[in-house]
Each structure stands twice: as structure tokens, then as C-alpha cells.
Write a structure and sequence with these properties.
Blueprint (H helix, E strand, L loop, with lengths): L3 H5 L8 H16 L6 H7 L6 H8 L5 H13 L6 E11 L9 E5 L4 E15 L4 E10 L9 H4 L28 H17 L7 E3 L7 H8 L4 E6 L6 E3 L13 E4 L10 E7 L2 E10 L8 E10 L5 E8 L6 H10 L2 H11 L11 H23 L10 H22 L1
Parallel strand pairs: 1-5, 5-6
Antiparallel strand pairs: 1-3, 2-3, 3-4, 6-12, 7-8, 9-10, 10-11, 11-12
Length: 416
Amino acid sequence: MPDIIGVLECLSQCFDKTRLHQLSYIVPAMLAMTGRVTMLGLSRWTEKGGSYRTIQRFFKSPIVWAKVNWFFIQHHLLDPADVILIGGDESIVTKSGHNTYGLGRFFSSLYSKPVLGLSFFSLSLISVKERTSYPIMTEQVVKEKQAQPDKKKSGQKVKKQSRKRGRPKGSQNKNRREVELTPYLLQIQTMLKSLLVLLGVDLSPVYCVMDGAFGNKNALQMVRQSALHLISKLRYDAALYFPYDGQQKKYGANKKYGAKLDYDHIPDRHLKETTLRDGIQTHIYQMTMWHKRIPDQLNIVILVKTNLKTQKVARVVLFSSDLALAFDKLIDYYRLRFQIEFNFRDAKQFWGLEDFMNVNRIPVYNAANLAMFMVNVSQLLIRHFRPNCPAFSVNDLKAHFRGHKYVSETLILRKK
């Protein structure tokens, strides 16, 4: 079992001695404690010297958590021979009250409706070899306040200006790759570029994996402008077109779009694999296709699943901007995206992402990032138990440290 102080020693370049000393109190307390992970709760479980004021000073300190996570991952978790993906996803933390920084109504997939709370977007490094995800950068998403319309003017009808039919004289074709990004996408793009600068020459990821919410032209261009390829999901009935392979006209622009894809009659020449498991037959197709709202061709992989008993059919349409990516890798990389969900689950269930009671900007930022940092710490510690106990979990890890805590406290009481 590694010593916690020794594990945190690699972070001496990220923290001054005071902050590193404070973190050395906080991490063992979080591993051993029960109940809600708040500043007060932490202060009750820390060793001598870890008072409430000490915890409070740590949470008020400006910390570059992306650098902290990268140094920790690089030193303890990263395999240089591994294939690394960048994964991104958003998580909603429910909160009540009025004064918490960034409080707003965000759509929660768990509740299937907008809820009052905080939103955090996290980027993770996904290990293909270990099939796990390491959170590296987490930022809060704050909604911009919309200007309220003037009540007097809102009731008045505005006449539409009539325009002549046809294309305006002198107009030029727009570059469809130059899209106007929303503040939300701009924030994610800034995070991606900052992460690539942080990784430097030590690590050069090629693919960014995101869920179906980013399966659109703006998100695709946002990722491509960051020098990455996007792997994501389209709607099950997305309008896709084969490239035109007929004879072109002598004059005018060449035709791009061929026949529209009929999902019920996909040509057999595109079939790559057929599997049968538990009464579910899966056909996997791969093809290069056009989408009229996206300026470049897409590498499309379609999974058609048929229940042989009920004959019900379900489709999943995955895509990548890398046309050379094989279908099996595309599917595997997209499946690994779900590891980020496990990071959020552990951060909420064990490390206080759902519990913290801070209200100001820096403490809220530190509380969320500390929870994600503890996900990385727990993954390192669990590795030492897995060879002898493959089912060793975070619950077992906390029980182990809690047992050590009780033993040490009992020995102190006996000495008295």
C-alpha cells in the first residue's frame, strides 16, 4: 500500500509547501471519512493540524488543477505505449438557494428536465489499454444573463422587409468551415486548446470523443479547429447521402450528393461484420458519406440491431471526421466515452461533487476539481489491491482507510 505523502510528492511543482501540506491533510481525511464531504466534515476527520481554518484556506486558494491532474496522471497512471483519447462531457450538480456562483437551470438527463443547480464540463484522458478515464480539466459552465426585452416594444408588430427573389447581387459563397460558435462551445474549445498546450510533446492525442449532443456541424468544426478528430453520434434517422459517382457535367459545379441513404436497404457491399448474441443480431456497416449541413465527408458506422424473437430493429449511427479510422476502432473508442460517466458517478457518490456547500467562485471551482482529483487518486490506490482482489471497489478502499483510522485512534486512546 503506497504512502499518501509519497504519492503526492510529485505535485511539489504545482503547489507551494503550504498548499501541499494542506492537501496531505485533506486526501487521507477524504479516504477515511463518512457522511457529507464538506469543509466542516473534512476538518472533523483530519489529523492534528488540519483545522477548519486550514481547510478553508485551501479552498480559497487559486489552484491550477489541470496542471495538478496532469502531473499526477503522468507520474502514476500513464503508460507511454498506450493509446490515449480525449473525452468530454457535462455533469449537472443539483443545488438550492440563490447565492451560489453560477447557479442556474440546466437540463439534467437523470431527471429528463431542467433542474436548479451547477453545471461542470470535464475533459478526461481515456486509456484504451486500461479502458478507464482520468479526469484532467474541469470548469464550471455559467449561463450568460439574457437581456430582458422592453415590454412596450415587445407588443408592437414589426413589419418584415421585403426582399427580391433570388441571390443578392455581389454576394459570395461563405466558407462553411467558419462557423459562429456559441459561448458554450467557445469555452470547450478554449479548454481543448489549453489541454493540448499543457500536454505538449509528451502526449499527442488524435481523437476527441463526445456524446450525441455534439453530433452537429458547430461542434465538429470546434474540434477540428483544435487540431483533433471528432468521434460522436448522429440521430438514428440522420439524412445521409452517398458521394456522387456518376458522370459530371462539362459546365457548372460538380455534383457532390448521390442517392440518399435508405436505412432499411443498406447496400451489402458496405457490410463489415455480423454478430449474434443472446438473440440479438447485429449488422455493422461502414461507408463514407455526406451530410448536407456538414462541409466535409464523414466516416459513418451504422449498427443495426435486430431482436430475432420480436423482429424489433434499433439503429445507432456513429461518425468520425477521420475517414481512415477502421470501424472496430471507431466503435471501441466511442464505447470508452462512457468511462467519463463513471468518473462523475464516483465524484458525486464518494468525493463530494454533490455535497459541497461553497458559494463563491474559487471555492466552488476547487471543490469540484478536488472531487475529480480524488477520482484519479482512488484509481491509483485501487490498482494495488486489484491483483489479489479483482472486484476491489471504491467502497472497499474507503473501508480500508477507515479501518486504519479507527485502529490508530484506538491506539492513541489506549496510550492515554
